[in-house]
Amino acid sequence: VSDDTPPETLRERSLAAIAEHIKSGKARRIVVMTGAGISTAAGIPDFRSPETGLYANLAKLNLPRPESVFDLPFFRHNPKPFYVLAKDLYPGNFYPTVSHVFISLLAKKCLLHQLFTQNIDCLERAAGIPSELIVEAHGSFATQRCIECKTPFPDDLMREHVSRAEVPRCMRGPTELDPTHCEGFVKPDIVFFHEALPSLFHDRMDLVDNADLALVMGTSLQVHPFAGLPEYVKKGVPRVLFNMERVGSLGSLADDVLELGDCDTGVRKLADELGWREELEAEWRKL
Ligand code: CNA
User: Fold this and answer.
1) 3-class secondary structure for the chain?
2) 41 Cα nearest atom in ligand 1
3) pTM, whole model, 2 decimals?
4) Is 21 considered catalytic here?
5) Residue 170 annotated as part of some ligand binding site
6) pLDDT tens digits for the chain (287 residues)?
7) Choice from 46, 88, 192 to test ligand 1 binding pocket (greatest atom count within 8 A of CB)
8) Which residues' Cβ are closer than 6 Å to ligand 1?
């Protein structure tokens, strides 16, 4: 469709019309899909933004390709670059952004059906979004285990290792089945390339199908299967993109609204239209 194609569900393709849709009670099951772009304002670099993204800054780590840092065979061979990066990304050093708080406000108003995030920074939880409403599609830094025997590794020791960019090793002693000390490399439970997504991702995909509004925020939609999620939104259900650039198929359907620019600004505009702006800023300041 072109930008002047008339919408089917909305009055017009604008944030004002999205706000009307929410306020009229027609959107009670809002699904949100997020990526690294909602955390850049917190100081965490994304992958693909030119110049500021991680991929643009990995040259110093001497990797075959920037993506190797999240590649399991490479990690098994050389885990050090991952830990250099992990030091910069580790949860606890950052605060949620206005975009995170907006999603949390949706949850507070019982409008959030489900949040699907690709982020591994745990800022959704830090913003107070209830964990049962979050699918961390690419896992998170919240837990970790040995890549060989899968024995979990303690959180406090993990934090110490990451703060020194040191590679933690499995502490499992001899067992009946295996008389050796394991000493395998420990990796956070984040999903590396070619690893399976958590089963929760697949279990909750139905929620996208019965959503009555979808918000896509801060993602390049380059990583599958996550990138396919917006395609599961039913025909006639509005989809809004808050992103620096146009991505995926967003903008191609009659009820798609594109809000191009930084997502905190876009979300503040929507909050203005909804009359939620003061509440949003107050919640954000409280964190
Ligand atoms: P990406 O491929 O780096 O894309 C980010 C997208 O966000 C791009 O389209 C940018 O234009 C856009 N963007 C950047 N800043 C803003 C902003 N302030 N406002 C609006 N849009 C913005 O990242 P994706 O999440 O799409 O890629 C998936 C990877 C990135 C996942 O596997 C993540 O685990 C991984 N990642 C996560 C984090 C994190 O947890 N914060 C950080 C870096 C990478």
Assistant:
1) CCCCCCCCCCCCCCHHHHHHHHHCCCCCCEEEEECHHHCHHHCCCCCCCCCCCHHHHCHHHCCCCHHHHHEHHHHHHCCHHHHHHHHHHCCCCCCCCHHHHHHHHHHHCCCEEEEEECCCCCHHHHCCCCHHHEEECCEEEEEEEECCCCCECCHHHHHHHHHCCCCCECCCCCCCCCCCCCCCEEEEEECCECCCCCHHHHHCCHHHHCCCEEEEECCCCCCCCHHHHHHHCCCCCCEEEEECCCCCCCCCCCCEEEEECCHHHHHHHHHHHHCCHHHHHHHHHHC
2) 18
3) 0.94
4) no
5) yes
6) 666 678 999 999 999 999 999 999 999 999 999 999 999 999 998 888 888 888 777 777 778 888 899 999 999 999 999 998 888 788 888 999 999 999 999 999 999 999 999 999 999 999 999 999 999 999 999 899 999 999 999 999 999 999 999 999 999 999 888 888 999 999 999 999 889 999 999 999 999 999 999 999 999 999 999 999 999 999 999 999 999 999 999 999 999 999 999 999 999 999 999 999 999 999 999 98
7) 46
8) 35-37, 39-41, 44, 46-49, 53-54, 118-121, 138, 218-220, 222-223, 243-245, 247, 262-263
Of ligand 1's atoms, which has the minimum distance to the CA of residue 48? 3
The interface predicted TM-score of the complex, written ipTM, equals 0.98
Pick the catalytic residue from 21, 100, 113, 138. 138
Whether 110 has a binding-site annotation, put simply, is no
